[in-house]
Structures are given as structure tokens and as C-alpha cells.
Amino acid sequence: MSVVVGYVPTREGETALDHAMSEARSRGTRLVVVNTSRGDALVDERYVDDEQLAGLRAKLADSGVDHEVVHTMRGRDASEEILAVAQERRAQLVVIGLRRRSPVGKLLLGSTAQRVLLDAPCPVLAVKV
Question: Is 60 exceeded by the pLDDT of residue 64?
């Protein structure tokens, strides 16, 4: 069993990570951090670079939470990767970060968030910054 968090190096991603660490700690379970890219763009700012990955690993180590980082580029979109990891790791909870949106934007959460919310095999905690 695990808590899975979709992570991007943004304020929303950091907030989701902090909530996911807290959930994993309170549940006494492993935290699985997913950062992914399809690899079809020259630069994907949501995909952590080596320096950001080292900082993420250090933050996780300092937290004392049992953890694993899934850092992939397999041609799948973020929602597919998060959902696959949630299924494989038998997630108790998936955590995602949401950014504030305009009134029109609130009608559509965004493809990644919407797909995770609708298709996750377990409860989803959507953290808004």
C-alpha cells in the first residue's frame, strides 16, 4: 500500500508533495512521488532536472518518510503515468496539486487533474494552492 503524488516543480507541486508526505506519515505507508514527461517537447519545465531531482530526494530523505521516486519519460502523459503507478503500487490515496483558475477554467479542471480524479483506483486528494 502507498500514497502516490503527482509532482511538478511548482508551488502547486510542492504543496501536493507536502500534503502527500503528511498523509504517508499518518498512514504509516510508503510515499511514491511521480514526475514524468512524454518526452515530445524540447523543454518540459514540469519534468525535474538533475539538480531539482537531487533537491527532491534530499527533502524526502529529511522528511523521514519511506519513499520512492518514479522519474520517467515513457511517452505517456502525466495522468496515464500517475494512474499506472497508483494501480501498480496499490495506492490508498493519490494526491495532486491544482492551481487557481478563472471562472471559465473552473468548468474544466485540466486534462491531467480531471483524468486522475475520474479514473483513479482509490480516493484522490486535490490540493489547491
Answer: yes
